[in-house]
What we know:
The chain is α+β, with helices and mostly antiparallel strands. The protein is 28% helix and 26% strand. The protein has four domains: 2-53, Alpha-Beta Complex (Molybdopterin biosynthesis moea protein, domain 2), CATH 3.90.105; 58-164, Pyrimidine nucleoside phosphorylase-like, C-terminal domain (Aldehyde Oxidoreductase, domain 3, Alpha-Beta Complex), CATH 3.90.1170.30; 169-314, MoaB/Mog-like domain (Molybdenum Cofactor Biosythetic Enzyme, Chain A); 345-534, Spore Coat Polysaccharide Biosynthesis Protein SpsA, Chain A (Alpha-Beta Complex). The protein has 16 helices and 30 strands.
Amino acid sequence: MRFGKILAKDAVGAILAHSINKNGIRWKKGRVLTTSDITSLAAIEIDSVIVAQLEHGDIGEDAAATEIATLLDGVGVFASEAFTGRVNLIARFDGLIKFDRKIIETLNLVDESITVATTSNYERATKNQIVATIKIIPFAVHENIMRKCKAVLSETKSAIDVIPFKTKRVALIQTTLGEMKESILVKTTNVMRSRVETLGFELVDDLRIPHNVTEVASALSSSLNKKIDICLVAGASAITDRRDIVPAGISEAGGKIIHLGMPVDPGNLLLLGSVGKMVTIGLPGCARSPKFNGIDLILNRLAADISVGARDIMLLGVGGLLNDYAGRPMPRSNNARKYKHEPKIAGLVLAAGQSRRMGSINKLLAEISGESMIRRTVTSLVSSLATPVIAITGHQSEKVLAKINDLAVDTVYNPAYRNGLSTSLHKGLAALPSDIDGVLVCLGDMPQVSSTIINQLIEAFNPEEGNEICIPTWRGKRGNPVLLSSRFFPEVNKIDGDVGARELLARYPEFILEVEVASNSVLVDIDTPQSLERAQCR
Length: 538
């Protein structure tokens, strides 16, 4: 393939290397130039162009990408139409993604013109999800390079597969010690049921037994007799040794310990064993949370009938640090909603307070850089992705409204504002449309929070991944505003007095996602004359 600048008059049949946008002509790169195109270029005084010209033995980018995709795709995937040298491989159904890593790496080493990118191996795929993409870098590759690619791919029957999940019968055994709260046991059951049902499993048994070896062994034997495929054991205390209660129970039931521990965090203290043909897993403590953790890596493979041994677990270290991997799929919590649309997030501005700590000044009316505090707060919210935006007024309502009535904000008056912050929350929630998925609760006295930060919280909100409460942090310290899923609205309505949702946050730590932001504005509320003066001096 020849590449470079040539005279426009000589460019018939060549491929345009760069887009042209001039005098009404808007041509994208990749356009094959025609005689008519050359005439048009002359009319706008373009006498030379940068092009690619195919030579004997060259294969165009779309044809090359299509051929590689055809050779790569295996069970459970199909190829998209080629476009600009790119073909995507797409999952035909829900299942487990399995790649031949060696083949993919060898293919990428053939030539810089050939690139194949995939998702991670052994991750869950949903129907119509892109699991790999083939991109040809230049406008064409030589047939010699394609022959090398074919030679690599001839070494395997299938390099990329999506393996469908198989139905499994699952039992959950929970051991108890002392006065273990019933709520913990119930939550564990709900979380595990949601986790296994997401994979198409059936939770057929849920046992509660004392935390001792004999009881564990008896429960395991009972599960084996019921033809359970996978038995999950949630111990009252973490497994710290092969001789601990749960592994000792497996041994007493005639089973074997395959491996204790895994290089995955959260999920280090997982135990893999078996009793007969029944896979037996001693759960790490993190399994009680709906968030993606080490147990999901194991269950995903078992769902696809892929056996898991000690070596498989020991090789999970690369990519095993899961805490900060926000894009990794997570099982749905039991009460999470399934969205067929982008979540609709409303904004509430609490602007009803009496500003008692400010003396005679209504802080919301005070100006910062020539603009009232409440106007700055509302402006940030209406400039964000939140819609609708509702301001709850109370004290000096008419004066507050005068500062914001020209903005795209709805207002609700709270006659009970003297009874505390909770009354404004109740009024605000009652005013929301019925199809709202979440609400961003903003304090009127935090005028430095930008629309960028607000959008960060909205974009992080994802109930299907367990992210139902989004809290901004700066250097690890939590601030405001807070985004709450609509599933918590009934509980917010039960809050009394001059308090916000602090107690609710304490009850549901597993649904909280902390979103680190680049500004300490999320920590700065202006509620004293001194803090107001500092803000005005900036």
